[in-house]
């Protein structure tokens, strides 16, 4: 006979796992939503089956701290433990499905369900997944600084400030549709407001060259995206929360000759001077 400390444990380390089986204990499906909007309800599922023995316990953890326990032989069988960021909807919750009411930013973390069979084996299956609580920006980024006209060799100095969000926006710069060179960009650490939302600031500084002016125009965009590496793999999130863009438009403060045009002018003048000397 195996005691609790010596039990066999099977882990499913993904957000969704189907048919996890260990000696008669089966988890048909586990589902920890990867993200939720602040204030929404989050449903954590761990659907299990027992083929031969009965259930000993079902436990739920956040960041390895227990907040829910079901032991059918106890009176009462269900126990709740207080935890910051975790408010269990007791009316909607059953052992295989825990419902969290009005999630907040401190609800983010790694959740785990632990299902254990009765004696003599005490076989146990653990399934886990990460939940991130987000709030998208209410508006696009704002560009400050700059002038309406620039000459070649002028310095462009712009600041882009994101709208508050959680997680903070990733800001990127485009100059005439092309990614700005890294040495042009300086990013500050995001700062957090009293409401828990975060604002990101990025500065773009570069010296204009003829190639920066297309048709006498200089187009600069600041793009704000909250997807990030963690959420980028979830197509539903990326599809729902499109990046915000803000356009800055300036004109050339005089005639701008691109390198090919400058070369043609040089060749024309050289040939003209050559013909004049020959005469």
From TrEMBL:
<keyword id="KW-1133">Transmembrane helix</keyword>
<dbReference type="Pfam" id="PF00047">
    <property type="entry name" value="ig"/>
</dbReference>
<dbReference type="InterPro" id="IPR007110">
    <property type="entry name" value="Ig-like_dom"/>
</dbReference>
<keyword id="KW-0472">Membrane</keyword>
<protein>
    <recommendedName>
        <fullName>Ig-like domain-containing protein</fullName>
    </recommendedName>
</protein>
<feature type="transmembrane region" description="Helical">
    <location>
        <begin position="256"/>
        <end position="276"/>
    </location>
</feature>
<dbReference type="Pfam" id="PF08205">
    <property type="entry name" value="C2-set_2"/>
</dbReference>
<dbReference type="InterPro" id="IPR013783">
    <property type="entry name" value="Ig-like_fold"/>
</dbReference>
<dbReference type="InterPro" id="IPR013162">
    <property type="entry name" value="CD80_C2-set"/>
</dbReference>
<keyword id="KW-1015">Disulfide bond</keyword>
<dbReference type="InterPro" id="IPR036179">
    <property type="entry name" value="Ig-like_dom_sf"/>
</dbReference>
<feature type="domain" description="Ig-like">
    <location>
        <begin position="39"/>
        <end position="126"/>
    </location>
</feature>
<keyword id="KW-0812">Transmembrane</keyword>
<dbReference type="InterPro" id="IPR013151">
    <property type="entry name" value="Immunoglobulin_dom"/>
</dbReference>
């Amino acid at each position: 006979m195996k005691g609790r400390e010596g039990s066999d444990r099977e882990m499913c380390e993904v957000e969704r796992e189907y048919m996890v089986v260990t000696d008669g204990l089966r988890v048909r499906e586990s589902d920890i939503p990867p993200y939720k909007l602040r204030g929404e309800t989050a449903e954590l599922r761990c659907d299990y089956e027992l083929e031969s023995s009965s259930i000993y316990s079902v436990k739920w953890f956040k960041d390895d701290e227990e907040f829910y326990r079901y032991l059918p032989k106890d009176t009462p069988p269900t126990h709740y433990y207080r935890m910051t960021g975790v408010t269990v909807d007791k009316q909607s919750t059953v052992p295989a499905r825990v419902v969290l009411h009005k999630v907040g930013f401190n609800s983010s973390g790694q959740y785990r369900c632990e299902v254990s069979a009765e004696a003599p084996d005490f076989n146990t299956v653990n399934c886990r997944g990460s939940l991130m609580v987000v709030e998208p920006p209410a508006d696009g980024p704002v560009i400050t600084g700059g002038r309406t006209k620039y000459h070649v060799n002028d310095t462009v100095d712009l600041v882009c400030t994101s709208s508050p969000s959680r997680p903070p926006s990733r800001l990127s710069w485009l100059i005439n549709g092309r990614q700005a060179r890294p040495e042009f960009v300086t990013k500050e650490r995001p700062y957090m407001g009293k409401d828990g939302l975060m604002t990101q600031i990025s500065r773009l500084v570069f010296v204009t060259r003829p190639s920066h002016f297309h048709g006498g125009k200089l187009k600069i965009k600041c793009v704000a995206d909250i997807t990030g590496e963690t959420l980028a793999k979830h197509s539903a999130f990326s599809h729902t929360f499109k990046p915000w863009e803000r356009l800055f438009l300036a004109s050339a403060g005089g005639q701008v000759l691109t390198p090919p045009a400058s070369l043609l002018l040089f060749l024309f003048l050289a040939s003209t001077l050559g013909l004049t000397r020959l005469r």
